[in-house]
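[Meeting: bench + compute handoff]

Bench side (C.D.) handed over the final construct sequence. Compute side (W.E.) agreed to return the predicted structure before the next meeting so the bench team could plan truncations. Sequence as handed over:
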Amino acid sequence: MSRAVSRVIRVRYENGVLKPLERVDFREGEVVLIRIEKPSDRARIVDRFKGFLGEISEDELEELIEEAELEKL
């Protein structure tokens, strides 16, 4: 199975540990890079650029933002 090089996932912080809210495909002990961002911060970005690209759904705008962020890595 091929693994994605980069992707965005949601996590929950509990008892000092970030816990993924979806399945991740890492080997035990593997080191990865993460970016911490609160959903409220993301919502502000989406609201700021809504309408900038014409008619586009919030989901489509989210995807475009994620793709742009991943290109920076």
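W.E. noted at the follow-up: The mean pLDDT is 77. C.D. will use this when planning the next construct.
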